[in-house]
Here is the input.
Amino acid sequence: MRLIERYLFRQLLGPLVLAATALTGVAVLSQSLRGLDIIVEQGQTALLFAGLTALALPQLFNLILPVAVFVGALVSLNRLHTEQEIVVCFAGGMSRWRVISPAIRISIFAAILALVLNLWVQPWAQRTMREILFSVQGDLVTTLVREGEFSEPSPGLTVYARQVDRDGLIHDLFVHQQKDNGGSVTYTAREGRLGKLDQTPVLIMRQGSNQEFSPDGVLNYLSFDEYTFDLRGFLDRDSLVHYKISDRYLHELFFPDLQQAWEQRNRDKMLAEAHFRLSSPLYNIAFMMMALAAVIAGSFNRAGYGKRIALVAAGASLGRIIGFAVQAACADEPLLNIVQYLIPLMMIAWATQQLFRQRVRRFISIEHHRGSRNLFGEAST
Here is the structure.
């Protein structure tokens, strides 16, 4: 890029980065508020919470990036045009293409970044987050016991603990089990600890007693120094993590394992997600082109371009909303997947036509003037 093009590139890049940072901060805040239950209910550390928030960023950033491109481009282009810097570029002999080429380069870089995030970074981050959540939910202490409240980790099992120490020691434990045959048993213990015995989850209770009602209504009472309560029937969980559609890589979306019932049922949804991953980066180019059309396509106006920018912004928002609606519709009708590409391409085509229509009109006017002069020249001779 030449000197002026590099200058325009820097002027466009700065507001874009600032817009992306600000919007990402808002998205992180909203994600943090939704994920507080991991700390409050699951009793996990703030470090784990911060890690999960960071892993959610690639998916959020992909939604934010086109908006950041649009906002950053509008801010910088409006300032450059209002201060007549773009007018000076045109007056100095720069073509319209050379003036907008730095913005096009930025949008292409943004599209490539979005594509990389869609194809590799997002699936990896979502898988890692899913595995962490799986391990957190598999934590026996956080799943079974909630300090100071009654919890029901499984139907037929009620657990209460007055206090749980940092090392996992449980104080003043109460456990009530409802049996399938109609009987019930209640355990109370001064302390307890969760653990595993031959890979089987167990609750070891000490200095306590149990009271059991038989199906006939007979009460049996037993005190103990230590009792091992088998949790296998209450905390059985799948041993494998189930990855959702957003966690899959592109080849897994296009070529699902149809021998699995879940993938066979969700084949169309996976196909829609795959085409969304490939088509959504085009919105970065489309939004940049529409921002250029909002500011540069019209004539110079020292008072600003508020009305034109508002109309183009409404059109860009409408196009993105329609894109999301089409993605949802593609889950039921795979033939609509082509529309996921057509929407951003149509936005690009419209913006390009707006940017270069004056040049086309000028060319037609010049050709018409030449034809009229030749006609009159021939008539005079």
